[in-house]
Structure formats: C-alpha cells, structure tokens
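Troubleshooting: if your tokenizer reports a length mismatch, compare against these two reference records.
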Amino acid sequence: MAAQQAQEFGFGTQIRKSPYFDATVRWGAQGFSVYNHMYIPRDFGDPEQNFWNLVNDAILCDVAVERQVQITGPDAAQFVQLLTPRDLSTLAVGQCKYVLITNHEGGILNDPVLLRLAEDKFWLSLADSDILLWAQGVAVNAGMDVHICEPDVSPLQLQGPHSGEVAKALFGDDIADLRYYWLREYEVNGIPVVVSRTGWSSELGYEIYLLDGSRGDDLWEAIMAAGQPFGLKPGHTSTIRRIEGGMLSYHADMDNQTNPFELGLDRLVALDGDAEFVGKAALKRIRDAGVTRRQVGLVIDGAALSAPNTRFWELRGQDEVIGKVTSAVYSPRLEKNIALAMVTVGHDALGTQLEVALPDGVRLATVVEKPFYDPKKKITAAAVATATGSHAV
C-alpha cells in the first residue's frame, strides 16, 4: 500500500527522496513540499493537532532536507570561520552553534546549525539554499587545505516535552546530560547516528543524524517503537510553534537582501576581532550607518487566519507602504493571529498600529514583543537544568 500511495507524490526525478520517505507515507504523510531539492513532509492531517502533539507530547519529523555541508582538512576551522561572522574561537569539539552565512555585501545566504565533530571536521546543517556550491566556490580562492562535500547524513527531529524519555529509551540514561547545542555519537540497533540537543521547535528536542542512508526505514521504525509508550506521533515542523518562538525561516523571513542587524542578530556578528570572514567590511559599514528597516512581531486583528500566509502581505502606515508581513499564523494557544514582519525604521516601536493587506481585505495590526511565547526560553532552560543539575543554558 505504501508503494501505491508514494506514486501520488510526484515532483519528478530531479527532486530527491529522503531515506525516510516511504516510512513517512506509511505513517500518514498526506502532502509534501520541496526544500533543498528534496521532498519534505508538510501534512500529516490537522496542523493544529500536530502543534498540540508537539507541545504536549512528542513528534518525529523527517528533516533530511537539512542537508549537511561537510568541511574537513587541516585548515577546516579557519575556513569555516571565513564563511560566518559569528566568532568561532571557543567552539569546542562536540559543540554546535547557530550561525549565519553572509555574502560580500553582508546579505544572509543561510542560517545553519554548525556542528564540530572533530578538530578538523565540521557540518553545516542547512536551511533552504545551496551552500555546498557557495562553500566550494569560496574554497577555490581561499588558498586553504580543505575538502568540501555533501556526506551521507540525513537528520530527523525528535521534539516535544516527552522527547527526553524517548531518547533515554533509544540511547540510554546518559543522554539526559547532553547539553543544549552539544552532540554525541550513538548506535540504534546497530545503526550509526549523531545526536544533537537542537531542533526547530523551541521545545525540548533532539536531532538524530543518520550516517547510513540505507537504514532510514529501520531507524524511523525503531524510534516510533521506542516512543509509543510516551505518545510519540509522526509529524512535521510546526509553523505555529516556530512563529510563536520567533524562529526564522529562510526565504520567508530573510534572504540574501537581508542583513543580520535588520533581524536583531547583532550577537552573531563579531566585527571587532581579528578573524576575517566574507562580508566583514560590508557589515561594518551597515553597523556604522544604521539600518533602515527592522524585523518586528505583530498581532493581527480579526478572525483566526485559516492558514499561514503563502505570499508577503503589504503593510501600510500613514497611507504609505512601510513593509511586509513575512510569516503569519493563528496560534490556538495564544488565541491570536501572530506574525513576523519587516518594517521601515520609525514604524517599529512597540504599540505602533499598522494596516495589513490580506487577500480578503485590510486588517489592523499592532507591533508587539517577540518571541510571542516563552521569550526567555524557559522551556529549553528547564530541560537543560534538569539534565545538568544547574540553571545555566
């Protein structure tokens, strides 16, 4: 039956299937999108139920589309620093960091998680853009001894408050002391994996990186079996939860025309150190001149949005266009329409009222603090405190 169902999803042979594709269809995937030239499950039924499964129990998501760019060689550390404005001087083996990849104009090309697996081995776990090609291009003229490739690595996300119990069933009790944004190597029924305490949900969670694409079906079934006593459900990354948490989506909330300062990500840009990286001079100019627009949070008035936006919605203030809504959704927990938007400086103060041009008419919106839920990251902090016996994140 799975094979018959799989025939219904057809973007063509140029769109790759993940090692978990057949398993996700078997477990109820009803629709797919394309991300990094691969199928990604985006529909397991009711997206609101998927949200409640995530925040109340746990979900398993096929995110093999988060392709890895592997950088190895004697100059790997120096080369990785060349790609990002974030200071990597303290990045230890076994540690992960959220980083930005910038071009020579300071525009953002990707916002991956960087994993350091060895002194001379790194992965960039990508958002939706071709950084493998960019990194290989930068390396041509870098004069450094590095090798850059896409390895046979395919991640899953195990996310939600019960994900820790599922992880213990899979990997043993010692997984409980894995710190936030750190990684370890494990095996599941002889299947080699790397596990990191990361995820795109703002909940307690893990990413499980399969190191043998031929074992995708086996790994999926092993995790679902281990999670059955804890209410684990198959699912997809939740637009509701990621917007609640103020988490950014590449191509939606930023692109290569967006710089880090517009997003309030100054902490990821180290301009005063000695390290050289692509875009450093441009980012210094942008910092010194100041930005002309900023990302804000919005609450949109009116009835609950029936679905997330599929195009950018125009924002108006004082009878002029002053920006656009980039991501919007109805939060059933907050009982509000919430959104991320990019607006002209001068219209970004908290409490500012704007008009949003939705497909069905104009509504009022108010600039508010973001993230919309758990702004101090108490959910992940509490998970870390429980695992480490401290309140340090």
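Reference record two:
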Amino acid sequence: MDQMTLGLQLAVQGVLLGGIYGLIAVGLSLIFGVMGIINFAHGQMIVLGMYISYWILVLLGIDPYLNFIAGACILFAMGYLLQSSTVNRILDFPEAMQVVPLVAVGLVLENLILMFWGPDHRSPETAFNLSTIWIDKIMIDGSKLITFVLAIVLTLGVFLFLKKSSIGKSIRAAADNRTGAVLVGINVNRINNFAFGLGAATTGAAGALLLPLMPVSPYMGHDFTLTAFVVVILGGMGNLWGALLGGLILGLAESLSILVLPPTMKQVVSFILLIIIMLFRPQGLLKGHK
C-alpha cells in the first residue's frame, strides 16, 4: 500500500472513529448545556448501555443496531430518576461539591455491573461484525459505517427535538434563564429531569452502538468519560454539533498520527489537542450553550 492510499485509508478510519467519539460525547454535552453540570458517571452509563444491549442480543437475538432503542429507554428512566432524586438537589452547590455525588454514582454503577455480569470481557458476534465495503483500494468497516451514520442521525434527532418540540423549547428556555423560565410557568425541576433523562438515553444508545465495535468490560467507563471530556472541550461545552465536530477532529488526529507516531502514542495526540484548545480557544471551536 503506497503512502497516499495509506493516508486516505487512515483518514476514512479517522472520520468513522470521530463519529463514534461524537456519539460518546453528545449526552455529556447535552446535560452540561442544559444544567451546567458535568456528569461524571457518563462513562459508566455508556458501559451499562453496552451490557443491556449485550443481554438483549444473547437472550432475544436482537441485533444492537435494533435494540439500542431499549437501552435508550432504560437509561432515560434511570437518568430521570437520578436527576429528580440527586442532581436537582446539588445544582446550586459549588462546582467542587457537585463532583462527589456524580463520581459516587459512577462507582456504584461500575460495581453493580461487576456484581451482575462479572469482570470478564465479552465480545458478542453481530450481523455486521465482519462486513466490509471496498471503494477502489480503500476498505470501510461496515459496523463503523453504520455506527457513524446512526451517530449523525441521533444527534440530528436530539437537535430537532430541542428546536421544534414544546418540551425541547422549555428545556432551552430553562437552560438560557432558569429564573425567567420559572416566571413564565415552566416547572424547571421537571424539565431538568427530562433533560438529564434525554442525555442519559443518548449514552444508552451510544453503548448499544459501540457493542459491535469493541469487547465490553465493567472497567471501560473511565476511558469513555475521559474521551467525552476531550471531545466536548474541543467542540464547545454544551454544543451538540460541537461534540460531533470535536469527535471528528479527534478521530482524524488520532488516526493520521499513525503516519508519524507509534500507534501506542495516539492518546498523546488527544491531550496535545486538549492543551492547545484550552490555551488558545477555551470556549471550544463552536461556542458552547453556556
């Protein structure tokens, strides 16, 4: 394979990987954009979505590309309950005090996953596991392509819901001005519950769509959370399209870095990008909602 073909192949892989990164980050960005709080249990919620999808596949034979809706619904209910029972009570706390309850939730989820499913990696076979598409000399992984397309569709769906639906408009109003939303009769706590549930639902969907791409383990949550942080900071905290853009940039940077760096150093690239964006454009490439 010549250098030009290798570069094109890596660029294609980077774009597909970037769509996956964007999908991982959308829920985190949504929750921050509405409530200004960082969900430190984000990665563990994605892992829970992966295990839910895994067991639906094993028990019912329904592919993750279809059963992600069930995972999204379950995580929506869990997110709604978490917001109403815990997060609404800490919204006005100092930021340092908001961290501890959500880190604790993440640890509880990780240990519940360990208790129910054990520590072993699980790697199920799905319908598109070995599917590939060739365009001339460029190979496209079928599973990654489907996940990429669904990531775009889900992001667009959430965006349109927030823009067009009455609940979405209430969510945006509460995010823009909490006091003003209360004065015009919006039940802000209930809207926050729904918004957190929606953000959690996207993590459940992300977990299901990631299942065909990698073995699932209870300990993956911290890596997902870290990746999501880098992506949303790159794109702009609270900006859904910024999360997708940040994911694409990070995916391309990591993939193309293989041309000049050892593969084991690809994570260094993400942290270099993070440092650069924090120094020169801390609001992100697309200014965040808050």
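Descriptive notes for reference record two:
- The radius of gyration is 19 Å.
- The domain at 3-112+139-280 is CATH 1.10.3470 (ABC transporter involved in vitamin B12 uptake, BtuC).
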